[in-house]
Amino acid sequence: MIAPETVAEIRRLFYAEHWKIGTIAAALCLHADTVKHALRAVVPVVRTPKPRVLEPYEALVRETLQRHPRLRATRLLEMLRDRGFTGSIHQLRRGVKALRPATREAFFRLTTLPGEQAQVDWASFGWIQVGQARRQLACFVMTLSYSRAALLEQKRKALGATASGRLAHAVPDIATFLDAAFQRGESPARQTTQLLLLLDDYGAPALADAVREALAQNTPRAASVAFILSRRGRGSRAPLPVDLSRAPHLADLSIPTQNLEAYDQLTQTRPEDRAAKTPDDTDARDEPAA
């Protein structure tokens, strides 16, 4: 690499004196390719920066902004006009942007008591196609300001306090069942209501077995669960307790078991009745009317 002075001399001899490349190479003891490279190279132009209009007033602007950090550039322009400033507001704003001290806004940590405040977010995400049904997709989030993790923990602990939570506690596979029903276009709320009625009628163990059988048969519907439970028969279930708090006199009520053989005898024909019956009577009874 040759010195910048040599490059300048090569370019002067070529462009000003109109020397040939071979003559320049012989005169400067350089290779011809070096001379060609020097001619093709772009010589950086060193420019002396012009003095800025705001430069004589920078000390005043800096001192003023130190005392009043939020002072506007228009107010500074009025102060500098009285001192001979001839620049524009745009030039002053560029200078003020660089000279204004950086200020950090103070933030205070928000402290709340448990259950005092909650943040609620709601958003709609349009519509989605689920099986044969078109459903609206929305998201609802409520978070306690005291402790976000504690809110989720309380939701898990309170599963049995709601109807759906009681159903989830009684039937472990209910989430899979409702998801499959939702994929087939069924309403999860309606399915939950029907399953809760079956839970009250048949109990948790029987309902859990019926839900597993419905999932195995790929029929995730409350009607299928009801059919499975009815097929197994109500007689196999233990009798449900009856609340007699409003009628305490019925607690000691005893109903004797009736003998049903008397009803069976009514359907049987006695021997004397068969002997008294004649063929003519039989033919007359069996013969159709004319």
Strand order of the largest sheet: 1-2
Total beta strands: 2
Percentage of residues in helical conformation: 40-55%
Proportion of beta-strand residues: 5-15%
Distance between the termini: 139 Å
CA radius of gyration is 50 Å
Brief sketch in words of this structure:
The protein is mostly helical and 290 residues long. 51% of the residues lie in helices and 9% in strands. It has helices at residues 4-16, 21-28, 32-40, 58-67, 73-81, 89-99, 148-157, 163-170, 174-183, 188-202, 204-216, 222-232, 261-266, 271-276, 279-286, and strands at 118-130, 133-144.
Please describe the topology of this protein.
Blueprint (H helix, E strand, L loop, with lengths): L3 H13 L4 H8 L3 H9 L17 H10 L5 H9 L7 H11 L18 E13 L2 E12 L3 H10 L5 H8 L3 H10 L4 H15 L1 H13 L5 H11 L28 H6 L4 H6 L2 H8 L4
Antiparallel strand pairs: 1-2
Helix pairs in contact: 2-3, 5-6, 8-10, 9-11, 10-11, 10-12, 11-12
